[in-house]
C-alpha cells in the first residue's frame, strides 16, 4: 500500500470526516506532514452526512447483530471487513454504490473503535483504499477519469429531483384482492367502471392534456439540460486543473525526498576534505597561538599599577646617583624597551599577513561545521519519520497475515 497516492489520501480523509462527525478526533501519523488534497470536498461531505442521517440507525442495528455472534475486537474486526467485502463490494457497479459501501465500512470501524478495538480505523482505512483501487482498475478507463467525474456523479445524487408516483388505491379494491398495477391497467383500458365510469372519453381528455404539457415542458427541459452540460464541463475542467496541480506537488515532494537522501554522501566527502585541510595547517595554527599568547603577555606588562611605576622611577634615580662614573641614566632602559617591543610587533604582524588566507579558510571551515551539524539534525528527523512509516507498514502486514 503506497501512502503517497491519491486513493490513500482520499480514503484517510473519508474516514477522518466520519469519525469527526461523532466527535472522535483520530488521524493517522502518515498525514501529519502531508499536503491536504481538495478531492474530498464539501459536496461529498454533504452527501455522506445526508446518507448517515437517514441510514445511521440501520447501520447500527446491523453492527449489533454481528456483535451478538462474536465480540468485535482487534482480531475479529478484519473478519467483519472481509464479510462486508464479500457480501456488498462484489455487487458494486456504480460510483454511488462504491461511496455507500465506503460509508458503511467507515461507520463500522468507528463503532468498533468506540467499543474498544483501537486498531479498527487502520483496518477500515486499508479496506477503503483497496476498494477504491480495485474499482478504478476494473470498472474505469483510467484514474484521471474517475477523479474528474466523481463530483458530477455525486452532484446528481445530492441535487437530483426524486420521481414521485402517487398511487391511492381504494379500500374496495384491496378487499376484493385487486392489486395496484391491475387497477391502473383497468383504469387506462376503461374496464374498471367504479373508478373510470366514462371509459374512453376520460382517456381522450388525459391524452390531450398530456400533449399540451409536453409542448410546454420540453423547452424548459432542453434549457435545463444545456445548463447542466455547461456546469458539468466547467466542473470537469476545474477538477483536471486541481489534479494536475496535485501531481506536480507530489512530484516535487518526491524530488525533494530523493535530494535529501543524496545529501549525506556529499556532506561526508566535504567533511573529509575539511579534516585533511585542518591536519595540513596544524603547525601554522600552533605558531599563531604562540604569537597571540605573547601579545597578551605584553599587554599585561603594559598595564602595571601606579605603585610599581613609582618604584621603577625611584630605582632609576638611585642608579643615576650611585653610578655617575659610568654615566648611566635611568632613561636608557626606558628608551630601549619600546624599540624591542616594536620589533616583536612587526614580526608578529608579518607572520599574520603571511597566514591570512589560512585564517580565513579556518573561519570558513568553522562555519561549514555548524552547517553540517544542522543538516545532521534534519537527517535524524527524516530517519525517525521513515522508521515510523516502516513500523506501521509491518504492523499492517502482520495483521493481514
From TrEMBL:
Region feature Disordered, mapped onto this chain: 169-270, 294-313, 369-401
Basic and acidic residues composition bias: residue spans: 181-192, 369-379
Species for this entry: Nephila pilipes
Low complexity composition-biased segments: 380-392
Composition-biased stretches (Polar residues): 169-180, 219-246
Signal peptide range in chain numbering: none
Superkingdom as given in the UniProt entry: Eukaryota
The protein's name: Uncharacterized protein
